[in-house]
Monosaccharide-sensing protein 2 (Coffea arabica), 724 residues
Amino acid sequence: MRGAVLVAIAAVVGNFVQGWDNATIAGSVLYIKREFNLQTQPTVEGLIVAMSLIGATVITTFSGSVADWLGRRPMLVISSVLYFLGGLVMLWAPNVYVLLLGRLLDGFGVGLAVTLVPLYISETAPTEIRGLLNTLPQFAGSAGMFLSYCMVFGMSLQDSPSWRLMLGILSIPSLAYFALAVFFLPESPRWLVSKGQMQEAKKVLQRLRGREDVTGEMALLVEGLGVGGETSIEEYIIGPDNELNDNQDHEVEKDQIKLYGAQEGLSWIAKPVRGQSTLGLSRHGSLANQNVPLMDPMVTLFGSVHEKLPETGSMRSMLFSNFGSMLSVAEHPGKNENWDEEAQDYGEHHISDASGAESDDNLRSPLLSRQGTNTDKDAVSRGANASFMHGHAGEEVGSMGIGGGWQLAYRKDEKAGGGLKRIYLREEGVPGSQRGSILSLPGADVPVDGECIHAAALVSQSVLRLEDVSGQSSIIEAVDKPSESAVKGPSWRDLLEPGVKHALIVGILIQILQQFSGINGVLYYTPQILEQAGVGVLLSNMGIGSDSSSFLISGVTTLLMLPSIGVAMKLMDVAGRRLLLLSTLPFLLLSLVILVLGNVINLGNTAHAVVSTISVVVYFCCFVMGFGPVPNILCAEIFPTRTRGLCIAICALVFWICDIIVTYSLPVMLSSIGLAGVFGIYAVVCAISWVFVFLKVPETKGMPLEVITEFFAVGAKQVAAKEQ
């Protein structure tokens, strides 16, 4: 995963520059006011600060559609150029109007970076560490703010600080951002697939994953091009075919998925379970949340993926954990005499080596297949033999690992005129299904002493055509061809698909709640709180002026955020996005309530300062662990490939509009209802946010992006059925 990590680090330089700019303008505006005599012109002063927000809002309105047309990487390059030009214009600015132009250009760069970097990281990151890498923008932005405050503080100690130099230095990190975007960052493989550039997408994936065989993920990316369509949840028992074949009728045989184990003569078969579900991932979702009033079925479906893990407790044991490296063989069950021992040993060795860089918490051995009796070692190692095969019923199937404990399989759809169905498989941690028996599974009369597992499946229509993968063609050959879906670009009509519409509502609402949860108000109030705590007097005794003190205080406040963001990065893919939100929002609420009480009750200067300081620190640390990074992470995960750029731009536009509203309403609210009233409103919003997250926001950790969108399609269908 080293390649994906380095690419993510390079991409978040744009967020570093954004954080740098935010802190720099907060410091330099004091000196801009003095030079241009703006003390009596608060509107112009506010416009200088707000012009960046205006620019970000304007460019966000079309950034998504342009990114879908032009690509993610070119837009990041444009962002770096706009940062650089804005820095140069502000360095030169002879008057207020030129300064406003520089701020506008800078805002354009900010808007592109904030909108597209999370999207880019989500599309390039492995499933296992996608949350960690998508927390990097938050860390980079805070690091940029801290270093910028340090610079402004150092320059403020001079006799005549230059605000032009403060703002113009922005061009230096912008040059580094430009160089990385042009010479290091690859294009998003999902965008390349959406444009039919399959070979280039494959090369990028090989670079990002550090291995040659990316067949499974390439097939996954092709399948992700579809929007809408019917998706159903099915269940399979997977076990030795000799055991299942002895006890299943011909009707079940037609739906089987044939797999061969790495051991000579050992084969496995997947067959559907009939009757009432016993799985966590069921047609009704999580058993734990089914009876919660107003609970969105979407949340219960996603929750069912995470609440019932295999008994071993390790994600490594997800699918086929007891079976070693699984190989699907394109031959009939009785033809094991053609299994070549040398090729088998080589295949096992190659799979082990190729997956060594993957997370220990996930499946290491992707499912591959071999064509006929071909024992060519290169074919085994490349995965070019990941072909369909004929089972007992003459049905063509194949299977591949796609990360996060999921497998991608295919089967012929007899009901759709010979079409092709794709199946996302995941093992369910049903007691007795590991190294023992499957007890009392409805619809599955299997021996009690067999090594079988119970797997849930998301089944929907494939974007691949049956004729592309029939006969001697292989999966890898099929995904190397541009899909018909790649010709179709994003359209506004796609936003009306139930799954997309549901995801968009979740994304928009969580962005609104984040902005109204009080972060801007607490940032505004922090210097005053720390001043009351006696920090200003202490710094004054050290010979540091009031302006420099405010910069140093702001820098220290930002520094406190960095360790908390580091904790969030560690937990994002372990505890999950939803749990982090549910765990940190109560602390935001408590901090705001204490700040309200501290301004209503007379605690004395010292006690008030201490209590307020602790509350602010707790608020900041908890915000950057949850409500800071998670909304952007979710918005970059929950939309289909074809509409992702458009949808994330809509969410970002809502973010910037709410940011402007909160920023400009704060002074008015302070003068009308006071600080206690403002923080009281923010506390109410935090309480509403917790309820919203609990009822409406699903957990997306450890799931491929394409599987997440499938779940939204299923969940939207259940919501519609529930409302009827």
The chain has a mean pLDDT of 76. The chain is about 60% helix and 10% strand. Strands lie at 231-240, 257-260, 267-272, 327-329, 368-370, 389-390, 396-403, 406-413, 419-428, 453-461. The radius of gyration is 28 Å.
